[in-house]
Amino acid sequence: MKVKSVKKLVLENIFLLVPLIIYGIYKNGYLIYEKGYISLVNIFKPLFLVIIALIIKLIIDLVKYKKINIDYNLVYAILIAMIMPYNVNWLVFIIGFTISYLLSLFLEKYFKFNKVCFIYLIIILINGLLNEFSFANILEAKYNYSFSFWDLLIGRNIGGISSSSIFFSLLAYIILCYNFYYKKDIPLFINISYLLLAIIYFIFTHNNNFLLNSELIFGSIFVASLPEFSPVKRNKIIFYSIVIGIISFGLTIFISSPISIYLAIFIVSLFLNIRLDKKQQNKS
Amino acid sequence: MLKLIKLEENPNVLIVNRINNYEDPKEIYIPIINKQTFKLNDYVFKNTYFGNFISSISGTISGSKKILFKNNYISALKITNDFKENIKVKTRKKEINNIEELKITLKKYFLNDIYAKLDINKIKNLVITSVDEEIYSLNEFIILTNYYNEILETIERLLNILGLKKGVLAIKNTNVSSIKNVKSILGTYPKIELNLLPDKYLISNKIFLSKFLNLDIENTVYLSSQDIYNIYLSCFKGKNIDEKIITISGDAIEKSLIINTKLGVWGKELVKKFIKIIDNDYEIFINGYLNGVKVQKLEDIIITPDIDTIIINKKSKELATTCINCGACLKICPVDINVQKCFLKQLSHKKCIGCGLCNYVCPAKLPLKETVKREENES
Question: Which of B316, B375, B369 is CA-nearest to residue B340?
Fold first, then answer.
């Protein structure tokens, strides 16, 4: 068993996200550029979103703590940038991220909720109010694709800007399973409960659209299992995961899948109220 | 299934597998627990008992000093060595043949820990563990390696005195040389059964060892090979226990050593004599990096029977942050305590065995053990 510090855990987590960002650049950048729809610079939109989120986080750190912290907020910032829809407005992202990040820092003193989902939902809400947007990129919006299983596995489906590759998500999950600190039961139980419901739904409606959900896989592996916002006891972990699986499936039927999973995680994390006594922590 | 793990060893800590002797200290210190009065310049013979403590040298009382003993600062008499080894009482009965004689000898010569462990009325199983719980200690290893004949002989004698049919000698399966040595003469001692233990932290703890060996913890007596060697010397050789084998190790020193030292020796003097400190920004732990006690200064330490290991490690540069709710402490705790909950509520837990695994795994470097293992009156 390898003993790790918070810094090491954060850096390892970021390292596992890199292949997904690179795939995001390929799918939501290079492929569109190749068809001549975007300029060369725009290929790197997934990376730029990550850099912007990191810069905002670091500036807030410098203002608030007078130093740069290598903490889980770094992972949160990267994850938020990765799950953004392709069509997110730059300005909305910058302003939305800054305001909701600051708001979450304030609110976390009183409530315990998944910060990543909270910030994501606020940005989506602002973006939705100001623009008409979809999760499909220019190519996906222009053409009708019939994705095969392998397409979905590699990540050619519609989803977050850097979170659509099931292959890289699963690869990261396998690596994370060897990490003593990772709550590996969470993705497992979320996906099992979701899949069971999707199969039942398929049996009754013959609708197979919900069977493979890349955003659910990414969200369950990286977002729902974030240590700060998930329970520690095994029975609570199982309960938390199953409820997320059920709610996200229920919501997926009515709203787009990327939103439903993060909304489900947010609701469950908020209501489970895994409150850490900050006062006691500060004493230590 | 036992929830035990193998600890990661620091590759910079290599203990020299040989006993160094320290038999001529300039001075020793005797903790004064009872309200005894002593005069300056009084002469003290070697092997004179001061309460539970023995003078391992002869010389004159030359002062006193505050020292750390079992987490408390107490006064200690300073005895300056005259290097004459003058002994007042020279004869002692060498052979013990029955339980009563064994009890009397253990009590008379202040082998209190062993006496307390040997609850003769309840004893049904005898287990001798020759396992160093602390990864940076080789005391048990070296005792078994050097004195395996004496240890097996003593176990057999003890089994006969206690009227037991069988005793277990438990050794880690990685201790190949001792396994070979013991096996070579084990046939001579039919009552002794050799049991090999996995190389895991806490396997020698009686809670886990009893589970591993499938023995009833209540009726089993657990002794270490150091205990057995002390019984051998005291009960079967008529010697007083005025020496102690300890390991001084850590990554802030050049060479980690095993030292057979006189009891009462000042820690600083011992370290100065044998050890070269290579990093002055160090921290000291007594009896274990994980399950031991942190000590402020080497000056506070004197070698008493309860000291097995002195660890001098480079100060950790990692600072404690806030809990990230990873649950590693809960997952690792061998006695299933909700360590995180106890820590956040600043509560101690009576089930805690103070193994320090929670501190070991905590990525935020929080002092979890120090909170959970506090004495009841502190919580």
Answer: B369
pLDDT, one tens digit per residue, over B318-347 is 778 889 999 999 999 999 999 988 888 888
Q: Phi and psi of A84, rounded to 5°? A: -65, 145
Structure confidence by residue, pLDDT tens digits, B23-52: 889 999 998 876 667 778 889 888 888 877
Looking at residue B91, what is its pLDDT? 64
Phi-psi sector, B38: left (phi>0), alpha (psi -120 to 50), beta: beta
pLDDT at A278 over 50: no
- Angle formed at CA A111 by CA A110 and CA A114, multiple of 5 degrees: 140
Partner-chain residue, chosen from A3, A9, A227, that has the shortest CB–CB distance to B325: A227
Q: Taking CB atoms and an 8 Å limit, are B328 and A71 in contact across chains?
A: no
**Chain B residue set in contact with A, beta carbons under 8 Å:** 5-6, 8, 318, 320-328, 330-331, 338, 340, 343-346, 360-361, 363-367, 371
Question: Does B328 contact A277 at a Cβ distance shorter than 8 Å?
Answer: no
pLDDT for position B90? 60
8 Å CB contact between B102 and B154: no
- Predicted TM-score (pTM) of this structure: 0.85
Determine the distance in angstroms separating the CA of A175 from the nearest CA of chain B, rounded to an integer.
Answer: 17
Instruction: Write out pLDDT tens, residues A76-96.
Output: 999 999 999 888 889 999 999
Closest residue in B to A229 (Cα) is: B325
C-alpha distances (whole Å) from B270 to each of A11, A254, B251 are 43, 75, 17
B323–A281: do the CB atoms touch at under 8 Å? Answer: yes
Q: What tokens appear for A128 in the block?
A: 């939705």
So what's the ipTM on this one? 0.85
- CA torsion B214→B215→B218→B219, rounded to 10°? 170
Contact B325, B362 (CB under 8 A): no
Counting beta carbons within 10 angstroms of the beta carbon of residue A144, is it exposed (0 to 12), middle (13 to 18) or buried (19 or more)?
exposed
Contact residues on chain B for A227, CB-CB shorter than 8 A = 324-327
Across the interface, of A71, A232, A284, the residue whose CB is closest to B325 is A232
pLDDT the model gives residue B359: 92
Contact B94, B238 (CB under 8 A): yes
Intervals of chain B under pLDDT 70? 1-2, 34-36, 89-94, 110, 120, 375-379
Strands lying side by side in the sheet with B27-31? B27-31, B72-81, B59-69, B43-44
